[in-house]
Amino acid sequence: MTANGSSNSSDQKLLSKLISTTNNQIENTPTSLKALASKAITTSNSVNDNSVQSQQAQSNRVEMMQTIFSYKAVHADELTFEEGAIITVLGRDEPEWWRGRLQNSGAEGLFPVNYVRPYNPPSQTDKSSNSVNQRPVVPTQINVAATLTWWLGLPIVKVRLGYTGRELSFLKVLPCQAGQLKSVDSDISRKLRERDFAIEELINTELAYNNSLIEVRDVFYKPMKASKMLTLQQLDDIFPHWNELIDTSTEFCHDLNDYVKNDSSDQSISQILLKHMIKFKVYRLYCTQQRVACETLQHCLSSNYRLNQLVKIFEKNTKTKGLPLSSYLLKPMQRITKYKLIVEKIATNTPISCPDYDEVVKVNNLMSALLKSIDHAIGSKDNPNRIDWFRSRLIGADKWLLDWLSDNTAQHPHDRPCLVHCGTLYKAKNNREFICFLFNKYLILTTPNYNTNGRLFEFPSTNQLNEIKWSFILYKEPLALNQVSSI
């Protein structure tokens, strides 16, 4: 624990006021508490004396960065590194790519700026216990006077986060005795460090993701539109809601940037996430159309040689680092999943006494609901194609069943066929193999009219549906689910 950086006189006044207003409690306070108060004042006195020396040392310090993600070089002039590697900065030739030297191998090359963060080498006294390759612990500073307030039974303790520099106030939930302070501080500090790392990950990865969205628009979409090799409908099918994704991410980046730079901002990280959750619904629209986007792109590239060659030229652009367009089209789907993982980290490491605890829990629940709705929507999109595929390969079915499987015009949704689940079953007596299709109204048992080679059944991918010639023989009349009773 360190003093909060206030002047010597203000610390003395604050401590004197605390002691004078709680005179009876101090008489029973352990001597370690008084020693802590004395140490806080002594530390405050030494801050100003050491400030000049620390500034001189900082001016002579070599700029070093620590990687927060792994990166594999795409070009010969780039560095390959693992998470936690230390890089000495040699030059800032480009805004997004700096030149540096890896500390562990001595290799020199370019590295992406959004994959690193500033690194402060450990002090001489810490070098024996801390390896240079360990991730530096973000300091969590606990105000000494506020800590004394906690010890003396008052209800508030304030903690300043090392990365964002923000100060959080925590309501006291349980009585805390002097002997319990160390464990309480340790648990809160650990959780807040992990929460701070998760927020940092959210900010850094959002900036990189936003850059990728803009690169797709500038490197692929605009030139493809200018070439007039595709219709506007084809462009919309390949890049569905892309400009809306860019606007959503850009606004999110703006608020996250304000959160880091502006300590006086009234918005907590949970409030920022809640504000943007409504806008994240664009990911549901995109994800449900992503399959069509990939199929349209594949069809256009295979049927138009000039377009195929043009896209290959675009993919060699230095901004895209050789990644194919199809990989970029997957990024929004990957991003919405990443949001969920990061929000879970923030929620897990937010103490229950934190002022925004309820809001963080709400964000986590909303994000889970959004992911479930996306999964359901994607399944609903694929359902008709799978049902048509199954119907065209079903042998021995009566006309009424085939008509029902092809009926997508029923007025009530529950009357329309909906495939709930499918898989392989084996008869216990003779190990006979069945392929089972569970619909919303019927259970259909079939025997495979092809060699399964012992593999469990699963639907082919959308691109392979028309290529695979499997067929299924109806085993018995479909079992109506409304005639099944549970025990």
From TrEMBL:
- Domain named SH3 is located at 60-121
Which UniProt keywords are present, listed alphabetically?
Cytoplasm, SH3 domain
UniProt xrefs under InterPro entries? DBL_dom_sf (IPR035899), DH_dom (IPR000219), Endocytic_GEF_Adapter (IPR051480), PH-like_dom_sf (IPR011993), PH_domain (IPR001849), SH3-like_dom_sf (IPR036028), SH3_domain (IPR001452)
Q: Where in the cell is it found?
A: Cytoplasm
Name a biological process GO annotation: positive regulation of Rho protein signal transduction
- One GO term describing the cellular component: cytoplasm
UniProt cross-references to Pfam families, sorted A to Z: PH_13, RhoGEF, SH3_1
Question: PANTHER family under this entry?
Answer: INTERSECTIN-2 ISOFORM X1 (PTHR46006:SF6), RHO GUANINE NUCLEOTIDE EXCHANGE FACTOR AT 64C, ISOFORM A (PTHR46006)
The name of this protein is Dynamin-binding protein
User: Which lineage ranks, top first, belong to the organism behind this chain?
Assistant: Eukaryota, Metazoa, Spiralia, Lophotrochozoa, Platyhelminthes
